[in-house]
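Re: Re: ligand-bound prediction request (bumping)

Still looking for help on this. To restate: I need the protein modeled with flavin-adenine dinucleotide bound, output as structure tokens. Inputs repeated here so nobody has to scroll up.
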Amino acid sequence: MNSDHIQNIIVVGGGSSGWMAATYLHSSLNGLVNITVIESPTISRIGVGEATVTTIKTEFFDRLGLSEAQWMPECKGSYKMGIRYANWKKTPEEGGDYFYHIFGEIPYIDEVPLTHVWIKKRLEQNYNIPMAYACYPGIAAMDLKKSPKLHNNIQAHYYAYHFDATLLASYLARWSVSRGIKHVYDNLTHAELNAQGNISCVVGAGGKKYAADLFIDCSGFSGFLIEKTLKEPIVSFENSLLTDRAIAVNFNENPETDGIRPYTTATAMKAGWMWEIPHFDTSGNGYVYSSQFISDSQAEQEVRQFFGKKAEKADVRIIKFQSRRRQNAWVKNCISIGLSSNFLEPLESTGLYFVYAALYQLIRNFPKKIIDPVLRDKFNQKIRFMVDEMRDFIIMHFKTCRRTDTPFWLANKHETVVPDSLQKIFERHQSGLPIKTTHQSDIKLYASFGVQFDNFWTNTNYQSILCGVEVLPDTALPLLHYRDDIMKKGEELFKHYQLESQRLINTLPSQFDYLSKIYAMKNNTVLDEVK
Ligand SMILES: Cc1cc2nc3c(=O)[nH]c(=O)nc-3n(C[C@H](O)[C@H](O)[C@H](O)COP(=O)(O)OP(=O)(O)OC[C@H]3O[C@@H](n4cnc5c(N)ncnc54)[C@H](O)[C@@H]3O)c2cc1C
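Reply:
Sorry for the wait, this slipped through. Here it is.
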């Protein structure tokens, strides 16, 4: 390799983002660059029992050559087919409600989304099958805690995973060390800059200096390099997103008797929402809330009440956060990835997506030792787009929630700021038009990570939430008034999905049975594979 190419990378931080960065860079650069991960022996990782989105399989695990039988048993992994939103329309006192946001694109008929056939039927015929049940054949099976895969491993539904991110970090650390990535424990105290303002080295507690050409800051919320050393400002979203704390609590579960839900549950609460993430035989749970509206002890009380007996003796952990991003994620020769770079309140489980999506963009814009600012600017622009688009989608959830029973929900309705980009989406929806259509089947859309990155939220996603809470447009898509042929084809598809739904219920194994088979295949090839 030329001496003007990057030869040494230091990753600061050994949380899930640090180890994902080390493994991803190692495999994407063909092992040609020396990578060292420096992790504090005293500062623990964030790990709350994470949920993910579909591309983590193709863009991350497949890239490392890791099969489900290898990594899932190590990280208590389970399948996730989507998110169930409970009580976002009605309070429990009003009887409660739920809707789903499911993976996979809802199809188009002659470039009109099936969602809009559903909307017309709902508005004009009071069609009473909820959108997700009408447009996805796999939901009834999901309710019955079935696996998204058949016993012969054929996939019947798009899926992502639930797992313990702390265990994932440990697993990836073992994978890394067995492949020559260096792992150092040290409490870094500061960094030194050269005359151009680039980082020349980071300095450990005993004064040891670690030099590299490129530094990846995965130091979590503290932002050891990007904030403390390079002082890159943040762009805060606190005017739009009020939640700023979480109480996390883990439980042991009994999957053999209770089954394993293949979805995340997000239940609206008095001052935020509760997450439930089922792993194989444990679960990660917690309350994301706003400290303006509820104290930590009130929030803890709500958690204990919600989970009842299970939570009586459980330890809880309070995590403070701010929804925000760096103005620039890449500054000088330092790229911030993970919590040091950005964080959005976790309603759509996108934290780890931000990690491998940033790594994907970094590889596409990977520099030489002397960094061409064009590469850096391109990366920064992609990360800004990624976070801001996600921010709008999450704000949409809070803005359209139908609850007005507490000061928190009233403030979300009347006081928080709607970015112009989201306002345009609301206007478009009200006019009856689809939002962000791709006209692609999911096979084409999901075939390229780059295409998916640019089209992360599509009409399917927006309609799942808006129609889920019954924020319907004023009028059906005007075109459909003239196109009975599209309406008829839509009706046929709805009927076909009802039949298909029964077939899936009859043929899919339970998630517990399917995972038991995968877990029984557990082996330690992660180390054996190294030659
Ligand atoms: C409430 C909550 C819920 C979440 N839910 C989800 C979810 O459902 N799905 C999802 O994908 N993501 C979720 N996330 C985000 C996800 O947990 C993080 O993105 C992920 O864990 C990555 O964290 P990290 O590695 O950036 O930081 P951390 O895990 O905090 O790791 C930081 C590392 O830096 C090291 N370090 C710090 N300072 C120093 C120093 N001076 N010297 C040496 N080492 C140092 C620490 O030792 C540690 O190893 C959630 C986060 C929160 C807070």
